[in-house]
Amino acid sequence: MERLKGAVAVVTGAGQGIGRAIALGMAREGASVVVAELNADTARSVEEEIRHLGAAALSVQTDVSREDSVEEMARQSLARFGQIDVLVNDAGIFPQSPIETMAEEEWDRVIGTNLVGTFLCSRAVVPGMIARRSGRIISLASGRALEGARNGAHYAASKAGIVGFTKALALELAPHGVTANVLLPGVTDTAQPRANLKPGERLEDRGGSIPLGRIGQPEDLVGPALFLAGQSGRFVTGQTLVVNGGSIRW
């Protein structure tokens, strides 16, 4: 079943992890996919993966924290495909620092990538969606938005900001037939949490405290993303869908 046949999806941070899984999942459902990724090499690699699935793809090196880079990504996407039907805001970073030693530059970098990036990318696609009276914006937050994050105040603030921003965006865009929602994963097997493990710590061990008994996999976010992007989710907007095996009941 090709639930997104004929649609054009932009996925930021699509070079790895959850973004890559969602990009491939949308391609399998018939979407043409723009791989918007800071790392040009991984962007091209995922573009090739999508092409091997038989779908159209375009990779664009994108720094979501920079307005000019986002605008250029949107320009290239429209030049290639003519429209943008779905935006998935997945690009994000999570360096760790305690508040008392956190540099302002690090705070700004995290907020700039995670929250400002979500704003810039959303703003770039909104005019076309409003003009067509159709569109889906899906942004990735985190359980840290609800629980906080030790040594990650900037990350928790940025992800909580995405939830609030999305609620406002949903209210503004609803009269134009455009939806905006949040996917909120829990601990997921990606490079980012693995990079922050302490010596001897295993990410898989965190699954013991999750009701469903395991940590998440990037593919666990694909189905929820497809639901929100397709016709089945057309009456859902301003919502936060928690996909975390029950570790947070929201």
Count of the domains = 1
CATH superfamily: NAD(P)-binding Rossmann-like Domain
- The end-to-end span amounts to 31 Å
Please report the total strand number as a whole number.
7
Q: How would a textbook summarize the main sheet?
A: 7 strands, parallel
Biggest sheet: strands side by side, in what order?
A: 3-2-1-4-5-6-7
CATH architecture field? 3-Layer(aba) Sandwich
Radius of gyration of CA atoms, rounded to a whole number: 17 Å
Catalogue the unreliable spans.
none
- Give the overall shape: globular
Label the structural class: alpha/beta
Helix fraction, binned, reads 40-55%
- Classify the beta-strand content into a percent band: 15-25%
Entry keywords:
250 residues, alpha/beta, Rossmann fold, 7 strands, 43% helix
Report on the structure:
The chain has 250 residues and is an alpha/beta fold. The protein has a single domain (8-243), classed as Rossmann fold, CATH 3.40.50. 43% of the residues lie in helices and 15% in strands. It has 8 helices and 7 strands; from the N terminus they run βαβαβαβαβααβααβ. It has a 7-stranded parallel beta sheet, sandwiched between helices. Helix 3 packs parallel to helix 4 (104-132). The mean pLDDT is 94.
